[in-house]
């Protein structure tokens, strides 16, 4: 299979940008060299590249150790942190990393700004009184 042309990659990135919550992306090769990035500094992109390749390598190793042949392939990794959500997908010699805003954090901000009470907040106040 031929490698995707630059136009195909640009089309995929354009489609990703249309997704609600999209914040940034990094494309890197298997040596950890950042090829393309957007909405983050080069320093942050290189930092992510180093950590992600290490994580992805370990995920592949341990998944192959734990599961049998048809179920032991890692296609993508989805990590949700306090600040953002990160999706990592490797294809051939390239890795795509997409960060998007964490939906739960965004919902909590909207709830606080809107004056809504968080779940369990009313019970705590009643218990204190």
Helix and strand topology:
Elements: H1 6-17, E1 22-29, E2 34-38, H2 42-66, E3 76-80, E4 84-91, E5 94-101, H3 103-114, H4 121-128
Antiparallel strand pairs: 1-2, 1-5, 3-4, 4-5
Main traits of this protein?
alpha+beta, single chain, 129 residues
Q: Please, could you describe this protein's structure?
A:
Helix content is 44%, strand content 26%. Strands 2-1-5-4-3 form a 5-stranded antiparallel beta sheet, with helices on both faces. It is globular and about 50 Å long. A hairpin with a 4-residue loop joins strand 1 and strand 2. It is an alpha+beta fold.
Percent strand:
25-35%
What's the count of strands?
5
Biggest beta-sheet profile: 5 strands, antiparallel
Instruction: Order the strands across the largest sheet as they lie in space.
Output: 2-1-5-4-3
Structural class: alpha+beta
Average of pLDDT: 82
Spell the H/E element sequence: HEEHEEEHH
Distance between the termini: 68 Å
Share in helix: 40-55%
Bulk shape: globular
Low-confidence stretches: none
Cα-atom radius of gyration: 19 Å
- Counted by DSSP, the helix tally is 4
Summary?
The chain is α+β, with helices and mostly antiparallel strands.
